[in-house]
Specification:
Length: 79
Amino acid sequence: MSITITIASTVSANAFESVVVLAGRLERGDANFKDRAIAGRRGPLTSVIDATDDLRAALLRLLVDGTLNHRSTARPVPA
């Protein structure tokens, strides 16, 4: 059973890499995603597809959106 995360081509390479890291962490340590193959790829739009569980796909989409929004709104910490 696999899950596909598609990240829009307009999203930065660093943000895409953050999503790939998130996917790896979830595969290894989260009971909702353990032993599921999560593939990350580029595409025209950001989406998450889990052919067997719409709720799990929605949860992952929230996590992906949170990761992308966190990366895009991060502000430098003053010294």
